[in-house]
Amino acid sequence: MEELFEKLDLSEYLSAYNGFLARPKPLFISGDSRANYEKIEEISQLNLNSPKEVANLDEALMRISKQAILHISEIYEFSKIIEYFNYLKSQNFAPKMRGYLDKIEIPSSIDKICEYFDENGEFKESIDERLISINEAYKNKKQQIDESLKRLIYTKSISPYLVDTQIHYVNSNEALLVRGGFNHALKGAVIARSSSGYFYILPDIVSKLKSEQSDLLDKKEEILFEYAKAISAIFNKNLPFLKFINSAFDYVDSLIARVSFAKSRDYSFILANSSKDIILSEFAHPALKNPKRVSVDFRGKILLITGVNAGGKSMLLKSIMSAAMLAKYLLPMSINSAKSSIGSFKEFQAIIEDPQNSKNDISTFAGRMLGFAKVLSKKQILIGVDEIELGTDFEEAASLYSVLLQTMMKNDIKMVITTHHKRLAMLLAKNSEVELIAALYDEINSRPKYEFLKGIIGKSYAFETASRYGIPANIVASAKSAYGDDKENLNEMISKAINLELELKLKLKSTEEKELRLDELLNEAKEAKIRADETLRARLSSLENEFYKAINEAKRGINLKDIKDKQRSLNSANSIAKAIQKPEIISQPLELKVGDRVKYDKIKGVVLSLSKNHAIIDSNGVSFRVPISLLKLTNQPLNNPKSVNISLSSPKSASVMIDLHGLRSDEAIYRLDKFISDALIAGFDEVLIKHGIGTGKLAYAIKEFLKSHPSVKAFRDGTPSEGGFGSKVVKL
């Protein structure tokens, strides 16, 4: 496993992750992957304390099973595990993690043992009065030793032999540094010599006190042994529980370490699914400092990466392999998790480095063949091969590998391959399960783009690379001549095909954007018509009711006998009729000219052309025809403005903190943009943003927005008191 991580440049990543574990353990997490993923998401909602470092207790458990007596320090290791589970059970977890912890019942006899130790792992003297007496006596002996040494230092008969007046510690013993001839004035044992030839003396009086201290420590050890014996007997009775809790601790430690590691680097988790597709969006390999993010859609069985030298082919291969491995082991990564999907593979194999060296006595090509032979019969495996043609004749390699790879495709094998060999790419390109991707080259600036184009064979640009790195032009020209006109023409055709493909993709992208905008405009137009119809129906209904009231009032007046009553009723009916607001009929159409900015319901645009009753307007690159009667003029730009006066006033409700919990990313970014503008106007130089942890989508959107904002100098995660990983402190 470590060898594979090293091949994929993940050694540093693995080392950093291991630093978050309480004790070393395998990467694989036992149990259902989806359940583990859900628990990780629930853990991410809380800011938990990481567990203390815990020793491996497998040997201790074995000795318990044989009724051995553990040392008090080993018992403390078990108490740390129990104490941490008690801490977890007190936290407000969501249902999945809560249900898991509720099933763990800690026996009271085991739980009580946590009370025996202080925060430093020392056995509490308050547990036993004998320990209090011993510790007090030990302190008194220490004080007596110090006082005895001070008296000796200031004794007149001894002072002539003292090199200095300090108390020296040699092998945990307090000693004096003296010159030769001291034995006439001082009784003691020489325990060491200094580099200058002086003597370190342990005085007899101090030696006696140290011996008495040692006796006290022996008594203390006897008392601790009594407790160790009693606790070991309890452990023996609860051995099945201890084995379970020891295993459960590793499980929980794996989950919490992953979450802590992810938060420390703002990484996301992806749950591997049952497919074999690898769809990456904005993935960044953890070994790169300033990575150019990779997006790949790999659904076939072979992804063949061709193109420019030093253009990132190998790193693309490692990125795809790394993402699949990290997803398998539920390890976090820098990726847009909402738009990514990674399948599940039982095994991974990387044929990357050159196997030839002085130790293994094997050729490069033979080593490659050995690597392929090992995986031919395997299934559900993801293989990465860098420079597949390495070590043998290109033409022979193309024929051999084309047959070999097509055979492997019949099994459940998925492969990522880099190659410079166009013939191999052309042989494999006919298969629908083979996907091509080319590393691109900037021909204008003569350098790789570190970008990739799907669906085409790439050119190596060997001659251009040689020129860029200082090879004389005449040598490059001679090399081109030796290479042959036909092959060079093929390269030119590939180059033109790549450029045409790029141009086509850009046009296709522009067309797709216009189609999306057109769909939006059509939906808005439909909604506008529906709203207009509803308004018209409502207005007609209102007019009918009002006219009905007027007519009924007039009918009532006709039936009245008294003339004055009739007159009053008719006047009332006339007043109701006059009060009815009739729809305004526009006698003259809106006067428009080309270039005017207009609005059709919610759709804004610019007038391109005019006819008698209709106008052609443009809205974000999409043109459409609208009746002039339905248009309204929007704010027009000033013609030849001489001056523009802008005044800014401090916002009335400016705040140094904004809470974006529960908002969608687009709404949160809109509010955050206004919040930062208000903060700048108000003169704030530091603000606090609270966004929570959740799925990580909102945190990712906010982080990307802050990176690109011109007024943001720097930002960091908040301290625990500021909201921890669920907040950002921003300097403006």
Automatic annotation (TrEMBL):
Domain of life (superkingdom): Bacteria
Domain Smr: 658-732
InterPro entries, per database record: DNA_mismatch_repair_MutS_C, DNA_mismatch_repair_MutS_core, DNA_mismatch_repair_MutS_sf, MutS, MutS2, P-loop_NTPase, Smr_dom, Smr_dom_sf
Enzyme type, top EC level: hydrolase
Coiled-coil regions listed: 508-538
N-terminal signal peptide: none
Listed Gene3D superfamilies: 3.30.1370.110, P-loop containing nucleotide triphosphate hydrolases
Single GO term (MF): endonuclease activity
SUPFAM superfamilies: DNA repair protein MutS, domain III, P-loop containing nucleoside triphosphate hydrolases, SMR domain-like
Binding site for ATP: 307-314
EC numbers for this chain: 3.1.-.-, 3.6.4.-
Keywords: ATP-binding, Coiled coil, DNA-binding, Endonuclease, Hydrolase, Nuclease, Nucleotide-binding, RNA-binding, rRNA-binding
Job of this protein: Endonuclease that is involved in the suppression of homologous recombination and thus may have a key role in the control of bacterial genetic diversity. Acts as a ribosome collision sensor, splitting the ribosome into its 2 subunits. Detects stalled/collided 70S ribosomes which it binds and splits by an ATP-hydrolysis driven conformational change. Acts upstream of the ribosome quality control system (RQC), a ribosome-associated complex that mediates the extraction of incompletely synthesized nascent chains from stalled ribosomes and their subsequent degradation. Probably generates substrates for RQC.
Family the entry assigns: Belongs to the DNA mismatch repair MutS family. MutS2 subfamily.
Name the record gives this protein: Endonuclease MutS2
Encoding gene per record: mutS2
